[in-house]
Specification:
TIM Barrel, globular
Amino acid sequence: MNLFNTKVNEIFQSKSAIKVITGINNSNIDQILKITKAAEQYPYTYVDIIANTNIVRLVKSVSPITVCVSSINPIDLYNCVLAGADLVEIGNFDPFYKKGLYFSSSDILEIAKKVKFLVGNIDICVTIPYYLPLKDQINLAQDLEKLGVSLLQTESLFIKNKKYISDLYKDSIYESISLAALSFLSTYAISKQVEVPIIASSSVSSLSSPLAIFFGASGVGIGSCIRQKNNIFQMSAYINEIYRSLSSLGSINSIEGGSYFNSSRTPKEKLKI
């Protein structure tokens, strides 16, 4: 599926997109600009920022990076498109979960219809809520594809004490995979039913990001881990970890697509490298 925006389309054709989330309610200009500068150094990255027209104009004036804005308010998204946003997203629901607010499939589909009407040929991403039964997630994804939505994002379980769990299994493979497991499960199931590129988000790390691609994602979303960094150098170093992780996966895929793996050798012969 080709997206409307050539640059956005290139990002997702790479199958290694990195969406750097500054926060749907984050209006800290200093932090947003630091994250933007850290992210713009790497190919196939883009930033997801608050739907604020002044911040959109500022980011676009200082950086060539692709800018996405997130909100559930169609008018806010429309105004940000006028201000220069490259694409829009209905999602990043965590702030609403903290308030006990959850959206039904019909709620999300109705918002998407309004946004589609307002923004026209601007790429739209929609987050598929983790709490919906898997069958309902797939049905919603298919309905959004029929509507003309360009991108989908999956998410994992919302955990208020996620930091406690991260500290409990600090730097372990278990922690890296378990916190993102639901997102990967949804990605796998949905990717089998739609042709829309999918972003796997929620607790994705450099260790787990290749799994997202194996499960059918075209990219990953990272957020809280970046915002916790103290300066632009630490932010850049973390994005570099994700980038190198996905780049190494690309190298593996290119080897698998080579003549060796396309040969007529038997599986046992192929193991004798």
